[in-house]
Structure formats: C-alpha cells, structure tokens
Amino acid sequence: MKVKKKLRLKRSTPNHSVAGDVFSFAVLILLGLFMALPLILAISNSLKPMDELFIFPPRFFVRNPTLNNFNDVFVLMAESWVTFSRYVFNTVFITAVGTAGHLLVASLCAYALAKHKFPGRNIIFSVIVLALMFSVQVTAIPNYLIMSKIGWLDTYLALIVPAIAKPLGLFLMKQFMEQIPDTLLEAARIDGANEFKIFTTIAMPMVKPAWLTLIIFSFQDLWNLQGSNYIYSEELKTMPYALSQIASGGIARAGATSAVAVIMMIVPITIFIISQSSIIETMATSGIKE
Amino acid sequence: MMNRANKPDIAKGYIRAYIKKRVKNTWKEMKRNKISYLFIAPFLILFILFYFVPVLSSIGLSFTYFNILEKPRFIGWTNYVNLFFADDVFLKAVKNTFLFAVITGPISFFAAFLIAWMINDLKPKLRAFLTLVFYAPTISGQAYIVWKFFFSSDIYGFVNGWLMKLGITYSPILWFEDETYIMPILIIVVLWMSLGTGFLSFIAGLQNVDTSLFEAGYVDGVKNRWQELWYITLPSMKPQLMFGAVMTITSSFAIHDSLAALAGFPSVNYAAHTVVSHLIDYGSVRFEMGYASAIATVLFLTMILCNKLVQALLRKVGS
Known about the structure:
CATH class of the largest domain in chain A: Mainly Alpha
Number of helices of chain A: 14
Distance between the termini of chain A: 44 Å
Number of strands of chain B: 2
Helix content of chain A: 55-70%
Number of helices of chain B: 15
Largest interface: A-B, 107 and 114 residues
Strand content of chain A: under 5%
Order of helices and strands of chain A: HHHHHHHHHHHHHH
Order of helices and strands of chain B: HHEEHHHHHHHHHHHHH
Oligomer: heterodimer
CATH superfamily of the largest domain in chain B: MetI-like
CATH topology of the largest domain in chain B: MetI-like fold
Structural class of chain A: mainly alpha
Largest sheet of chain A: none
Radius of gyration of chain B: 27 Å
Helix content of chain B: over 70%
Strand order of the largest sheet of chain B: 1-2
Structural class of chain B: mainly alpha
Low-confidence stretches of chain B: none
Distance between the termini of chain B: 58 Å
CATH class of the largest domain in chain B: Mainly Alpha
C-alpha cells in the first residue's frame, strides 16, 4: 500500500488514474481528428487534378497530386484586370504595416500603463478592458462615417489605422510588462537614462515573447480582413476578398478555392508554429483580475 | 446663533478648498508625469477616434433617421420600437444569435478548457503539437470554406457522396438550402473554429498552476482528477477563465462571416441571419444608418451585459 502511494506521488499529477489518462487521450484523438480533417481536406483538395475533384464517391486523399490549382489561381485572376499577385501584395502590405504600427504604439502605451503612476491610468485601463467586451462590428457604421469625413475611404489607411489601436494587444502587453522588475527601471533612471531610452533598451528587449503574441493576433486580424466596406477600387482590395470572389464561382472553382484557402492559412499557421512557446508564455499573464 | 448659521457655509468653504487643492494636486501630478502622457498619446488618440467616439456616436445615431444623404433627423425611440415590434427578421436574427451564443459559447468555452486541461499532462513536444492542431482552425481565416466540400449540395460533397453510396439517400441533400439542416451544420462549423484566444490563455494558466498544491491536495484527501480540478486547478486559474470568457462571449455574439460564406447572405428564409448580419444588411446594403446604429447599440449592450453576468458567475468558481 505504502509503495503504491509512493509510486503514484512520483507522477507529476498524483490524483490521475491510468484509466482516466487513457480515456482522456482517446477523447483528445477524436477531437483532434475533427479539428484537423477539414484542414487536411483543404490541402488535399488543392492538390487534386480536375478529374479527382469530381468523382463519385468522393475521395478524401489526393492520388496524383498536381500544382495546377495554384497555377489556376494566378491564371484565373490574370484575366481580370487586377492580377492575383496584386491582392497578395495588398494583404501583405496592410498586414505588415498595421502589425508593426500596432506593436510599437500598443507597447508604448502598455509601458506607461504598467510602469508609470499617473492620474487616469486606472480609468484608461478599465476602458480598455471594457473594449475587449464588444466586437468590431459594433463600431463599423460610425467608423465608416469617420473615414468618409477624414477622406480615408478607399485608401489603405482605412484598414491599417484602426487596427493599430486594437485593445487586445494593449491589454496583453500591459499585463506582461507588469512583470518587469521596478528595481531594474529605477537603476537605469538613477544612471540618468531617460524614459524612451529605458523603454527601448530595457523594457522592450525583456518582453520579446509578448511581441510575438501581439504580432500573431494583429496578423490574424489583418491577414483575414476583407475590408470591402471601406475599399471600392479593385486594385486596393485584399486576398480574403479575392478568395470570396473565387469561392462564389461555385463548385467549378473547387480546386482554385482550396488553393487560395491553403495560401491563406499556411502563413498564420507557420507563424504560430514558430512563436508558440512565446505566445503561451505571454498568455500566462493574460488573466483579468478583479 | 450666528455661528450655527455659518456652519454650512464654513463646511462649503472647506469642501471648495479641498476640491481646489485636489484639482491643483492632480494637475501638478499630471504635469510631473508629462512623459507618461506622451507614451500613451498615440494609442489613446487612435483608440478614442476609432473605438470610443464610434460607440458614443452609434448610441446617438440610434435615435435618428439617417441615410447619409440628408442630415440625421431626431426621431426618439422609433428605431427601437420598430426593431422590437415591427421587424420580424430582426426577431429571427435575435433568436438565431442567442441560439449560436448559448450553444457555441458555453460549449467552446468548456471544450477549450477541458482540452487544455487534458493536453497539460502530456510531454512538451506532444503538447505543442496538439495545441497547434486544436488552435489551427481558429487562425486559418477563411479555411471554413472547406466545409462546403463536406456539405456541398451535389453528389461530389463528402456527406452526400457517402450517404448515397451507403444507400441512405437516393438524391443529394441540399444542405445549405434546407432550413432544417442549416443551423446544425453551421453550429458544427462555428464550434470547429471557435476555441480561440481563450484556449491559449487556459494552456498557459494550467502550466503555471503551482504543482505543490496538487501534492498538498493529495495529502488533504483530494481523491480524483475531478476533485483536483474543482478544488485546486480552477480556483488558481480564475483570471484566465475570466479572460477566456470575455473572448468567447464577444466572438460568439459576432458570428457572421463564416455563416455568410457557407449559407449565403441573406440565407434561405433568413435561417442563418444573425444580429450582425442584420446590422450589415442595414448599414452597408440599405444605408439606413440610424436603424443600423440602433441594432449596433442593442448588440453592444447585449455583449457588455452578458460579459458582466458571466464574470459574476465565474467569481463563484471553486467556492
């Protein structure tokens, strides 16, 4: 009895039975398949030649993989007056500029909220937390009116600038920056460093994991932005918009649609793979305290 | 006598002096912290312009008739009255939205937590891999379009193909044209892509639960993993649970894009019409901005209210 107790204590989780572990692993595999199969199908379909896309009964995995569908995407769009690479450029440009701006602007604000004591900081932070509680659709109409007032309709600015002030990024960065030891900042101040210097040479290098987290969340939003409300000119429209256009071509475009879906998902997934451990580290401080 | 009559005046004088002093001190404090305001200024200006002002003006516009061409005209509560008493499509949208929110919200919240909890005991490499598998649909953007290949209305769709091969049906089912199938299928799709940001927060939170607590719990008579979960794990994860809840609630009330891509916009007989769909319909298609603002305001208040409600509930966890 005593031996058994010791053995069980050795496991990192002493109260878990082996049967329970097996059961939970089985559940995980089933759910994992449910999550993974659609994405695998997208990849498989994007590689299927025409005759494999339209067979009865449908086959899940591709037999003779080909890159024709990816080729088609560019050919299909080459016939319209805006080529597919233009949509790709627009999305890459908006995402890169918006994400970089968001990281810089949100970090500046987060640093002051986390490490400076000034009147109004608590109110500002509560408003930011409140802003996490509603989605962008709520502000869509007034935003449209504001954009048209300041003449930003049909420009990249309409898509980039609001994304720079996303409250989620500020919230996560502020929570993470709270961990920076005050003594370190104090020491730098005594050495005569000014606040901007401290921010760039001490605070920012210390929160590198949070950079990646802000980048992936901002990236995710901008990369998937259709933005067709604010943008009329075809040459300024984004890749998600192009995808929805191709997909609306129906079943005949099944191959091309899968190809674009794969192009769309491969980038954020790759970034997530690279930055996963940093993101998890940041999310540890993401809690909302009462 | 004189003294007594003067008392309130004296008190008032004190209060006034006190306020003056407070204001002066605060002003001094603010001047001393000039640099802090410089740090927050860029974000705050953009935030006020694109988040704060829009919410306020949305509330303001909801009391007007406004079609962009003419100036907004004040019409009182008319928009709200029409919304709740004359607009059958809106009521249907509200019903659908709550159906989505009530089903997918809690399921994806608990699923995200349970999956994170089950993953947590695994070896780091496997844990990282499974995190990717479960989180991938959330970040894959419009990959939800693949579900069209499972449920396409012809014989080349997987579900139809197999149902016909097995002889269960003889002609393909029109999944997204038939009202009885639209909602169940869309709920599956939404669940598939909705583990979301909260999931990552849970994984991180679980990895930081103090493991010595588990051994202490074992000594104190915690018998199985469920008791461990309720008495030890959950209480130490309250902040992450709160954050996850906020993320889930906000997104489950905002479902629209995936529905529109799969079931069409507007969907057959408005079977997949949500409040956000209705908002987009009036705001971006019909340009009835006053009416759309009323919808946005209702949505805003619903989101905030549900968030506050669930936070109050979560405070009771583990007690």
